[in-house]
Amino acid sequence: MHYVELEKDLLHQNDKLAANIKDNMDDHGIYVLNIMSAPGSGKTSILEAVLPELTKKYRIGVIEGDMQGTADADRLAKFPVKIHQINTHSICHLEAAMLERALVNFDLHKLDCVIIENVGNMVCPADFFLGEDDVMMVVSVTEGHDKPHKYPVMFSKADVIILNKTDLMGATNFNRDIFYEQVRALNRETDILEVSATQGTNIGKIVHFIEHGISHKKGHEHEHGDGHGHGHTHHHHGHRHHD
């Protein structure tokens, strides 16, 4: 019982801090995207595919979450984006306190969008709201079509699901119908985009999703740009915990 209460308190404290981050990002008109997946699903490959287009129009900041090392951040260093690396060491997810410390390294007046590449893990990151506007979940066909049943929390919280590595579909026993059925049983609202990051297939759809989020946030800022945070929308996924 003590463990359960401690976890609830930890999540509550995290949510309070994340709500403050969200208010701050709202006041600056910055769109925040939290990308989650298992290790190896292709989060970094997708960023490598979308950043050339996004950086033509927008000022992007990237926060890289890894247990150790800078391999993913090093891959993105060739793009004109500000990158900050968070190493969590023994912790398998990012938390709002880590994000708050990371954001000190950015000039928020010079950003349109912050993209968070969370630690590769299908369980823990889904429980920790970071103040994001949207959760993008990446899953690859090589992981199998049964992932929604095995990891329901992340699938239920995703605002968009990227089904990656579709070019390898024929080399696997991935069943698209079962995958869609399992996703829809958990989340009827989410978009599912089928892409191949390495082949460039449908990358434009991901770019469009992010651009829509940025322009919506900018419009929201102008509409409610009095600095007092009236009309901020806190997304459902930030405050739904599964005990």
Question: Rg, please?
Answer: 17 Å
Helix content: 25-40%
Mean pLDDT over the full residue set:
90
Distance from first to last alpha carbon: 12 Å
Largest sheet: 7 strands, parallel
Which characteristics define this entry?
243 residues, 8 helices, alpha/beta, 40% helix, globular, disordered C terminus, seven-stranded parallel β-sheet, 7 strands
Summarize the structure.
This protein has 243 residues and is α/β, with parallel strands linked by helices. Helix content is 40%, strand content 17%. The chain has eight helices and seven strands.
Model description:
About 40% of the residues lie in helices and about 15% in strands. With about 240 residues, it is of the alpha/beta class. A seven-stranded parallel β-sheet has the order 3-2-4-1-5-6-7, sandwiched between helices. Strand 2 (about 60-65), helix 3 and strand 3 (about 80-85) form a beta-alpha-beta unit. Helix 2 crosses helix 8. Residues about 220-243 have low confidence and may be disordered.
SSE blueprint and pairings:
Layout: H1 2-27, E1 31-37, H2 43-57, E2 60-66, H3 71-76, E3 82-87, H4 96-103, E4 113-117, E5 134-140, H5 147-150, H6 152-157, E6 160-164, H7 176-186, E7 191-194, H8 203-223
Parallel strand pairs: 1-4, 1-5, 2-3, 2-4, 5-6, 6-7
Helix pairs in contact: 1-4, 2-8
